[in-house]
Specification:
This protein has 217 residues and is mostly helical. The chain folds into 2 domains: 85 residues, Orthogonal Bundle (Rna Polymerase Sigma Factor, Chain: A); 81 residues, Orthogonal Bundle (Arc Repressor Mutant, subunit A), CATH 1.10.10.10. The chain is 64% helix and 0% strand. Helix 4 crosses helix 8. The longest helix is centred in the C-terminal third of the chain and has 32 residues. It is elongated, with a radius of gyration of 20 Å.
């Protein structure tokens, strides 16, 4: 059985170097310090799990991806040279594991993250109707969070994952590109489409709810 290739750590770019305390934790973990690696797990497991959920849309699969990603990272720690953030590297591993889960689903028709799409100068301009009344006036913070989460979950994985890393986790465009092994233009294109699709979804949702409310007045 062929061994699975572990993604090479991405090349560092200005502003993307690993924090010094992180490098110390990795160095200690390489030396067999399990507690140091546990600190890295605690630091990033929430983000990795959310990313896995966004790709697989299945809690059990996401939990498997989380465990497998950190196991493989620990197993191949010697390949991490500290030229970039540890999180960027673990994301690469987690994405690969999540995609393997999808490919094992015989009925899955999801587009793979590594499938090439047109990333030319396709800056889509779309007029979006204003929400009336203001959603914040009609919904609680928790309700809006739930609505937004469901809208994000409805995005295709190629857009959902880029949106999560860029707009939720706060990675830079360059870091997102490195984590997903994409070009910067591809990240920008997918992020644009994700944001436009989210605006459309939310606009339709609030407009429909507004119409329903007015129907009972």
């Amino acid at each position: 059985m062929a061994t699975e290739a572990i993604p090479a750590p991405p090349v560092a770019t200005p502003g993307n170097e690993a924090p010094s305390d992180e490098l110390d934790l990795v160095a200690r973990a390489k030396g067999g310090d399990g507690a140091a690696f546990s600190v890295l797990i605690n630091r990033y497991e929430g983000k990795v799990f959310r990313l896995a959920m966004n790709i697989t849309q299945n809690r059990e699969d996401a939990e498997d991806v989380l465990q497998e990603a950190f196991f493989k990272a620990y197993e191949h720690l010697d390949q991490f040279q500290g030229n970039s953030k540890f999180y960027t590297w673990i994301v690469r591993i987690a994405v690969n594991q999540a995609l393997m889960k999808l490919r094992k689903r015989k009925s899955d028709r999801t587009i793979s993250l590594d499938e090439q799409i047109d990333t030319g100068e396709d800056m889509v301009v779309r007029e979006v109707a204003a929400w009336d009344p203001d959603p914040e006036e009609r919904y609680s913070r928790d309700e809006i969070h739930t609505i937004l989460t469901e809208a994000i979950d409805g995005l295709l994985p190629i857009y959902r994952t880029v949106f999560t890393l860029r707009d939720v986790d706060g990675l830079s465009t360059e870091e997102t590109a490195e984590a997903l092994d994409l070009s910067v233009p591809a990240v920008k294109s997918r992020l644009l489409r994700a944001r436009l699709q989210l605006r459309d979804k939310l606009t339709r949702f609030f407009k429909r709810k507004g119409d329903d409310a007015f129907a009972y007045m």
